[in-house]
Amino acid sequence: MATLQLSNVVKSFDKITIIQGINLTVSDGEFVVFVGPSGCGKSTLLRIISGLETATSGDIHIDGQRVNDVSAAHRGCSMVFQSYALYPHMTVYDNMAFGLENLGVPKSVIATKVQAAAKLLQLEQLQQRKPTQLSGGQRQRVAIGRSIVREPKLFLFDEPLSNLDAELRVSMRAEIRDLHSRLGATMIYVTHDQVEAMTMADKIVVLRDGHIEQVGTPLDLYNQPCNQFVAGFIGSPRMNFVPASQMPGAKAGAHSVGIRPEHAQLADDGPLQMTVSMVEQLGSTSILHGHVVPEAPFELILSGQTTIRRGDTVKVSAPPDHLHYFDPNGLRL
To answer: How far is 288 from 187, CA to CA, in rounded Å?
Structure first.
């Protein structure tokens, strides 16, 4: 286990700055998720932490030691990639043992570590198979096992579930979170999927254009987003935004008002009039899609099933304590 401290970390490629002065502390044993849209710098930041990329400026400290000049092989980090990066000609056992063999670890020690990791990840019966004989979830477990046997200070995950189907992603999320609980390890996990971030993280770091927008627990970010970008990124479906002029009693200085789809309600006296363009019937819930003004797409989640159809007009309100107000610059009021 380990602590991580990033101080004014900058990364530039030629004249383009990708990471713009990141300051961040990850505590011992935390599960931290970097989340943000494609191109925001989250994978680059992970590679800087691991040593696969060099910071242009700033400092990286692991357990209090400055590691800027320490090679990736000696930083005590282990990376799990989106592509699994398994050797196709090797068995599961050999893939998990390979890194330790390169370090000259005795075979008896390697066997003990691999068997322990295989048991932890339910791979005991698969050790003589090759990657082509495994499912996507099993391959990802092998990649994680390869990290575990190294006993790293930091586990780093770079969008490890992106290649899996939706059902398997849900089960693998639970498996990785359970693994974290059992190991008590410090883990940093990169994803563009905010549902993964919300369900897995102790702490979420929201990135945009190489900057940190907000750091906090999942519910901190859901309940108190610091700006309109975070408000729109955290939550599924995304938060609705309507002009403050459409909401009677809007807070002074407000330019837009945020309403989460799950907090919007049908009401005969609602201040917003929504023209329904699509209805998703999910059985236990229904999602109405439409507009309250031409430039403001709007979604509303209803409990149960509905008789509302495309083309209908409905009135919408929201409880005042669930409204979010933002100024002209998108900052929370």
So the answer is: 38
Q: CB neighbours (10 Å) of residue 175?
A: 16
Whether the pTM exceeds 0.85: the reply is yes
Alpha-carbon distance 138 to 94, whole Å? 15
Kindly state which CATH superfamily the domain 245-326 is placed in: Nucleic acid-binding proteins (2.40.50.140)
Length of the chain: 333
Average pLDDT of adjacent 10-residue blocks, the chain of 333 residues = 94 93 97 94 96 96 96 90 87 93 91 92 92 90 91 92 84 89 93 91 96 97 97 93 91 95 95 95 96 89 96 95 96 97
Distance of CA 274 to the CA centre of its chain: 32
Q: How is residue 101 annotated by DSSP?
A: H
Residue indicated by tokens 């989460």: 260
Write the Ramachandran bin of 331: left for phi over 0, alpha for psi from -120 to 50, otherwise beta. Answer: beta
